[in-house]
Amino acid sequence: MAASILILLGFGLPTAASAAPIPGIDVSHYQNDRGDIDWTQVADAGYRFTFIKATERDTYIDAFYGTNRSGAGDAGLRVGAYHFARPNGSTDEAVRKDARGEADHFLAIGAPAPGDLYPVLDVEGDLGGLDAGSLTIWIRTWLERVESGTGVKPLIYTSPYLWTNRLDDTQEFALAGNGLWVAHYTEAESPMVPADNWAGNGWSFWQYTSGGSVPGITGNVDLNDGKAGTLKLFRIPVPPSVREQPEISGEAETGGTLTVSPGTWKGTKPIALSYKWKRCDADSCQLISGATDAIYEIQRADYGDQIKAVVTAKNEAGEASSATIPTGMVADGKAPDAAEVSSPEGHFSESRKLSVKWKATDDVDDDLTFDVRYRDAGKSGGFGSHTRWLTGADKRSAVMTGSPGRSYCFSSRATDDAENTSPWGEERCIAVRSDDRSLAGGGWEKKTGQDFYQGTYKQTSTRGATLKLKSVRGNSFDVLVSKCPGCGRIEIRFGGQVLEEISLDSTRERNRVAVEVATFGQTQEGTITIEVLSQGKRVRIDGLGVRRTP
After folding, report:
1. pTM over 0.90
2. 334 belongs to a structural domain
3. Exposed site from 58, 120, 148, 250, fewest CB < 10 Å?
4. Which of 58, 124, 337, 350 is labelled catalytic?
């Protein structure tokens, strides 16, 4: 990651001509030896960063490194540590060993930390008299060792003259992604840059004089420019840390929705956020499968538990998580589903006793109570208002006695223990058939018998005999008859229109046989006529069904 950032530096940053450079300094014990540094004055003078000497060789520690680091950081300057290279070694292995020793010493003392500027290797001086090949090995070893300890590619401080003459102007480190802090004192608008303009990436920091004067520091100070953007690009990434804890909003109740705020986070941008939700009882919390959005819809399984969210922030330096305060115990906030009347079944009742059944489901509660209502209409009139039949019933069925010739439409609603009430469900309608005694007509014998609807029926063998039910309003019709071997035929008309011709002949004798006549999409109005089509054959009429729906 660090390599790609650094390689892109020369292409993506504005040039010095197009963006103002960032002023900074570098210091060591030489400045402190002349007097204490007032870092507040340095910051007030507009300087925004400083590189501070930390170590030299594998034993030396700059006595003022800690003081300068804390003072500059407290004053608001961006701080970076540098190591003054003192390479030596007579063989390649000795060179590598020395470089590792100096790198480890620097890591221990300089302790580059998240938020610091990248660590720096200061390549200047006699460099132990090593040739270009040995110096390249030493520098490579030191850089790799420090990179493994910090996760970033250190900067290289050097002059164009030294790099060209002592390191054969190598581009190896420029191509590897190590940025350049070049030391070149000139009145030109830009410095000389070795290694073919540092492999096309250019300089990142420029030390343009050692004779600067800075408020708060006694004597001369090295002055530097950083290209626009370098303080961000060459800052050791800071892992996320939470500044303000995420919070959950919304009602903790079934059927409800919770939303977690992301909280506020410190750390190197960009920071990516992810979410997890947990269900918690008195003993532990468990992840809720699939709940990975900032919004969570509370489920039935959450009832009676608490819910909390965990927000995880991640950037190139690492990740951190912060959990919300759990909600209260999830309450029952969802009404039962609309109650359903499942019985009576069919269009017509076999008796006056109407067996009514109802049911409903709830997300958490099975101990529901029910209100049941009905409205009814006669064969000629319209439906009236609803009549409350049962209120707060804990049962799921009951029997109501209906009146012949009337249609009944039942509906129900459910209430759970939390007093959430469902809407009224759809109506289920059934009609109690009219008895034969409500049918008018001549030529019929009135008969009784316990096997017949309401204990009576009408019988004839005369062709053309009719029974009528006037001023009928309905959309479903049937007739209750007897069937037997040799029984006759009848015709059903409604408003002059033939609805059905029915043969009553059967291989065995059966009473109370319901024969569906017609069903219409809309309510029809008129007179129903039953006419005998046969002569000398028995015809029994037991009842007539007329069903209305709202």
Report:
1. no
2. no
3. 148
4. 124
